[in-house]
């Protein structure tokens, strides 16, 4: 018994200090030595989650819940049901999370108002976002702020600010939304919220920053979360979550080699603990592999992300485009855009413009660009504004309005520099080269193209380097014939290709006849296969 008492004491002390690894070791050993009191089993169930033992944590938590019920400790049972609801939500299983929330609601109905009732309201709202939208979240936000004042519970005020901040940020008022989300973090930073709930708030704020393209704020809160994790000893679950967010930013900045291995490892480690972030990790892994030319690896990563419940567009569509299947890519993005709210459509509209231009559908690209510009004007974040300017510049270049395009391209370049987005900066230089060439300034065009190729080379974007710096064209094709063949191989009709290149359909017919003769084929299908074999991919 003395051994059990001593081990329990060290385990409890380690838990109080956030030393989760030691707490897990000693509390597990204590359980092996004898039956743990309910309160200590509760500590063990919580620490298991922190050290990445999700299944053990959930099993022990259910045991603790049942013990509280048997002992008549209704408040303890309600708290445990709420904690289980939170953990299942973080894992990405909304159905089971909703079940535990219902259990907590049934118990709390017979108890006087307390902080637990506030946690219940927050979980109800956050789990219900996918089902009922933001309306109930706004109402709950008001209630939680009132409860926070009435019960002198800053953690409830914080959760209310999270909900109202999310509602504002997602409905076109990101300035007000981020102001509330920033304020919501104050009780978290002051240690006034249980660690599991604090971690969820951190993740919610960082995810919102990423969704809205506010990378500067995302960097700041990722750094703050990393600092928060330092209070705990050793590797914990939120260390892995922070690592994913840090690697997402590193991918934007262009260090793909460093990011690839780390993000794959983090995705595997977080699977089963936080499937939302694990899915984000695998999606980012797919993007790195797509841009580096590893189509098979990209597809596998996107499939894994999809299995974890993550959105795989626009990456999956752009992978189709890279493989010369522009029509399939267009169909996939159209399906993804159907029924989307304006915020979630923003990330898809730029790639949709790109695919429409590849197909020579300039009018459709112009329409999609207008939609993106409207979203960017309403939300006014640095990311959305830059995406919209980029899309407009691409449309202007495709329309042959090269002089108008150049100042727009300069704005896009400045925006991407502020975002530290290296790959997108290279794409702007590529468009600048086209604009300068269209104006007859070959020296400027060559300089811009060389800069684009240099950046692609530094990043390891092998397909882009091969596309722009391939030396003599295969088959003895001229540059114009190669442009026509790229479009035909991407699925464009002769009329589409003519519109994209601002030439007549008869001229396209003549180019195709010359192409067929030079490469020794007699059909469009064979020509497309030859183009893919010789890496004549569609224009970006």
TrEMBL record:
<dbReference type="Pfam" id="PF00196">
    <property type="entry name" value="GerE"/>
</dbReference>
<dbReference type="InterPro" id="IPR011990">
    <property type="entry name" value="TPR-like_helical_dom_sf"/>
</dbReference>
<dbReference type="InterPro" id="IPR016032">
    <property type="entry name" value="Sig_transdc_resp-reg_C-effctor"/>
</dbReference>
<keyword id="KW-0805">Transcription regulation</keyword>
<protein>
    <submittedName>
        <fullName>Response regulator transcription factor</fullName>
    </submittedName>
</protein>
<dbReference type="InterPro" id="IPR000792">
    <property type="entry name" value="Tscrpt_reg_LuxR_C"/>
</dbReference>
<keyword id="KW-0804">Transcription</keyword>
<feature type="domain" description="HTH luxR-type">
    <location>
        <begin position="470"/>
        <end position="535"/>
    </location>
</feature>
<dbReference type="InterPro" id="IPR036388">
    <property type="entry name" value="WH-like_DNA-bd_sf"/>
</dbReference>
<dbReference type="InterPro" id="IPR039420">
    <property type="entry name" value="WalR-like"/>
</dbReference>
<keyword id="KW-0238">DNA-binding</keyword>
